[in-house]
Request: fold
Amino acid sequence: MKTKSITFFLLAFASLLSITFIASCSNDDDEDDKPTKVDNYYVKYEVQTEKRVYICDKNITYKDVDEGKKIATRQDWSGTYGPFKKGDNVYLRVSINNTLNMMSGRISVSKNHEPFVVRAETIKSNSISLEYTIDF
Reply:
């Protein structure tokens, strides 16, 4: 009788361990436990002026991560900012004090440190107004 009790106890214990082990190896909850990957986007703004006799001041307005920024310069200008998130709206606006000069402007975007891709561009204009919503 004692042997039957011990055998029953061991079988019951082994069954309980097996059920616990199988339940712990289940894949049902694995998808919920993984953190969702958030893509980071970096934006490069570029402004170039065709070289003319007259010097011109450029008033540049662009979107940084948290807010719009303004600068004034006589030089060609570029800047890279981020990280932005998918759905963020970015913009680049440039005006000059001399309408005889022409400018080119560009917004390029990089996803997760991949190469930059041009997303908006103006070539040979006396004002620039570009906008892009990150959507890839």
Remarks:
- The longest helix spans residues 2-24.
